[in-house]
Amino acid sequence: MKNVFIRTAAVMAATMIAAPAFAGGTQVKGKIFYDFSQVDKTTAAGKTTTTGGTLQRTYLTVKHKLDDTWKVRLTLDTTYEAKGTPKQAGKSIAYVKYANLTGSFMPEFNVKIGIIETAWIGHEDHLSGHRYLSKSFVDQAKWDDSADSGIGVFGKVADGMLNYDVNLVNGAGYKKTSPSNSQDISARIGLAPIDGLTIDLGYRDGYRGTKTLIKGVAATGSKETLTQLMVTYGMGHDFRVAADYAQRKVAPTGGVSTTDKALNLWAWAKVTDQLGAFVNYEEIKFGKIGLSKEKRTVVSLDYKANKKVKLSLMYTDLKNVKGVSTSKETIAGLYTQYKF
Predict the structure, then answer these.
(1) Are strands 184-191 and 162-169 parallel, antiparallel or unpaired?
(2) How far apart are CA 58 and CA 122, in angstroms?
(3) How many structural domains does the chain have?
């Protein structure tokens, strides 16, 4: 992975140097999430505290317009892996987040192929505007992936009043893009009936890359069905409030099905041209017997230094982590997003 990242970064650097030769046909952009914070975790085994700076995320993106219809995109994503294998835990690991070809034929119909953006997470992150502080709920809960390998169609109808995004993907996300023995459906239909109001219906169905087929043996895997309804209202860059309900059914092959239900409320507002605030509340009611309701609250005071730099004082309180009543976590610190 390290050698692949170095070679890819070298190609992207060469592209940046040569960019003027494309007369505006190539764009190079970057985005960085960095925080300095204290994390307190409490479990049945006791309490642990960690303090310091963490490079949570870096994105480096190259987009190139081939002609009036086709364009390509490559995005490298380095992610801080708090868990994982011994070689990954506590380190920044490089992934290819997006590597796709997009065909824009008309506002109502466009196609994408490769490692593509899935239907829901990027859309909600755009509306909340605070991805550097808090992932969208289904991303945070790992009920969905923001990108995956596959094909999709998307567009806007009736002057943007109706929009859609429908994808057929491998199912395991962009960190594991190998083919599986079934494909997942990732879909969203959005309505914007009046100025400022958005209504989105989300649906995801499949095995998340877990289905295996062995000759002479019954298929294995765990099927997941995710449905969502989100309503938001806001006025330009002044404020936006949202309510999001999600339900996930998990059906292991030969096992007992369970249904988890969740509610997510968030809001942000601009106080002055540079100051603002954000609040996010999530709760999950797990379908398995004996698990408590997980609750997560995020609050922040935001400072917009300029169009490229955001800084936030953030506090997060998480209770009953993954349904375990003896587990909780608090985070307090300075969170930043800067881009070029």
Answers:
(1) antiparallel
(2) 16
(3) 1
CATH of the domain at 315: 2.40.160.10
As a whole number of angstroms, the distance between CA 273 and CA 237 comes to 10
Token output for 324: 């375990």
141 closest CA partner among 251, 22, 295: 295
Q: What is the pLDDT of residues 110-143, one digit of tens each?
A: 999 999 999 999 999 999 999 999 999 999 999 9
CA distances in angstroms from 7 to 17, 94, 304, listed in the order given: 16, 12, 35
Report the sign of the C-alpha dihedral through residues 192, 198, 202, 208, in that order: positive
Give the global pTM.
0.88
For residue 317, give the amino acid letter. D
The pair of structure tokens assigned to 11 is 């190609």
**Distance between CA 315 and CA 37 in Å, rounded?**
9
Domain around 109: 2-339
Closest CA to 320 of 291, 298, 340: 291
Residue at 70: amino acid letter: W
